[in-house]
Write a structure and sequence with these properties.
The structure is a homodimer. By secondary structure, chain A is mainly β. Chain A contains no helices and 8 strands.
Chain lengths: 132, 132
């Protein structure tokens, strides 16, 4: 169960301190630079589409099993599987974003809270069943 | 970027041939048996909650970059990143399910199209931003 990066995030967010916890909390748009080896897997994606991006949150602490949600000690402690904490045994980030622009194998998407250099491991079409 | 299984699916679906393509296409409820090492990460999950389950689709072909969506040759060929094909460079399955019942570190969830024995790699709370 080894992941390969299929691309990387190129963002103005350079540190965790700058990054909001979720895309819709003021995150900027960011580029996904898809590796040349995977460019044919982009066929059919278009500007305006929504897509689910999976990232590898390489700064996360994989040993953490319980957190105060949103890092706020006023929130009751919870298991990481009941939260969206980046700290978890397998730190896969899940980001629903809109594609703003596609230039060859570079996609401008947003809003996206992942920081510059974050590996991207997958992109998926959005289904109705992802919603209600 | 190595994933560890945090549990496994226990399902009446024993083969890909039996499994619908998506949970809402008639999939049954199934159990997630969470490994003892991760049981404390379940704190705060309750029957009735919705949760996003990430699986490792170990039967997938990671070399596939384009498919006919839903395996139907009448559908125009598309890059896997524009689809929900299990075949993709990093075959992570994304399943939004409802928790029916929790018995210690076993969760009955559904509907779930993953087959018996599929490794589970993560569970996450559902956010509003996963929706519209």
């Amino acid at each position: 169960m080894t992941l390969v990066p299929i691309g990387r995030i190129r963002s103005t967010l350079r540190s965790l301190a700058e990054a909001p916890k979720q895309g819709r909390e003021g995150a900027p748009d960011a580029w996904i630079d898809v590796d040349a080896a995977y460019s044919s897997a982009l066929l059919g994606l278009n500007a305006g589409d929504e897509v689910i991006v999976l990232t590898w949150l390489d700064r996360a602490d994989r040993a953490v099993l319980q957190v105060h949600p949103r890092g706020d000690p006023r929130n009751a402690i919870a298991g990481v599987f009941a939260t969206r904490s980046p700290h978890r045994p397998n730190p896969i980030g899940l980001h629903r974003v809109r594609i703003r622009e596609i230039a060859d194998r570079q996609l401008l998407v947003g809003p996206l809270e992942a920081i510059d250099g974050t590996p991207v491991v997958d992109m998926k079409a959005v289904l109705n069943s992802d919603e209600a």
